[in-house]
Design a protein that fits this description.
It contains eleven helices and three strands, in the order ααβαααααββαααα. Residues 256-270 have low confidence and may be disordered. It is mainly alpha-helical. The protein has one domain (31-239): Penicillin binding protein transpeptidase fold (Orthogonal Bundle). It has helices spanning 2-24, 44-55, 74-84, 96-109, 119-128, 135-151, 154-164, 174-182, 191-200, 214-229, 235-255, and strands spanning 63-64, 166-168, 171-172.
């Protein structure tokens, strides 16, 4: 009996040591400071998506591309902040009010999801972790978020997030999304298009920007109306710009009547 107690004790200590080492390494690894100037390579989420496809026997590759923040429509950044993290510029990585509300909701449903994640938390998860919802992963995410907020500027965090976020099944980066869904550059996205893309972020494979989800459509409209109320969008000006774009397209079509578009949009090059 005594031997069994020792075995159990040593087993518990070994498991505890494993988790301490597994979690503790995230205080030093990976090297986040390199992201100040360098683009990330293939992210953990991209690898996770590829592994999932491979396990299911699906022959598919991710589509990923990069666009500097200067080449992304300002509407995109503002729509994403409204949709995902309205306190982005003021918090230090965590929105504790949102986390408390999400935790209370989880307790009522007797589930562990702990939503209320900030953009910084989502960036940490996308870059280095997996979609798994468990306490250990959340602790790792918290450590990485703390490091990201201290080593990267808010502007850089936003630039990284927009370029590594998934906007559809295997579609990573706002440039990829803009081409895939609207056939245009990320710089040319309108306020409504930005709101529609931002509305898909909670679950981009379910709420695809070109899908028929009523929830996503209603969410996109709410985001857009908030942009209008805050003066981010002046609807009259937006309508004029859209009419000008339509006229330009008609003129281009008239000048180039024979255009073979059967091949669809070309997916941009990877990072």
């Amino acid at each position: 009996m005594c031997n069994w107690k020792k075995i159990i004790l040593w087993s518990v200590l070994a498991i505890f040591a494993f988790f301490v080492i597994d979690i503790g390494r995230y205080f030093f690894y990976p090297n986040i400071s390199r992201l100040q100037k360098n683009r990330p390579g293939k992210t953990a989420f991209m690898e996770y998506r590829e592994d999932t496809w491979q396990a299911k026997g699906i022959k598919k590759k991710i589509s990923a591309s990069w666009a500097p923040l200067s080449q992304i429509s300002p509407y995109v950044m503002k729509a994403v902040i409204i949709a995902e993290d309205d306190k982005f510029w003021s918090h230090e990585g965590f929105d504790f009010d949102a986390m408390q509300k999400a935790l209370e909701k989880d307790l009522k449903k007797k589930k562990f999801k702990v939503g209320g994640s900030t953009i910084s938390q989502q960036l940490a998860k996308n870059l280095y972790l997996t979609p798994a919802k468990n306490p250990i992963r959340k602790v790792k995410e918290a450590i990485l978020t703390w490091r990201i907020e201290r080593q990267l500027s808010k502007r850089r965090i936003m630039e990284l997030y927009l370029n590594v976020a998934e906007w559809g099944d295997g579609l990573f980066g706002i440039r990829t999304a803009a081409l895939q869904y609207y056939g245009k550059s990320a710089r040319d996205l309108s306020a409504r298009e930005a709101a529609t893309l931002a509305a898909a972020l909670p679950n981009p494979r379910r709420f695809r920007p070109n899908g028929r989800s009523r929830y996503a459509a209603n969410r996109a409209e709410r985001i857009y109306q908030i942009m209008v109320r805050r003066g981010i969008v002046i609807e009259e000006y937006d309508d004029v710009i859209q009419e000008q774009d339509k006229d330009a397209e008609k003129n281009e079509t008239a000048e180039n009547p024979v255009n073979d578009l059967s091949g669809g949009n070309t997916v941009p090059e990877s990072f």
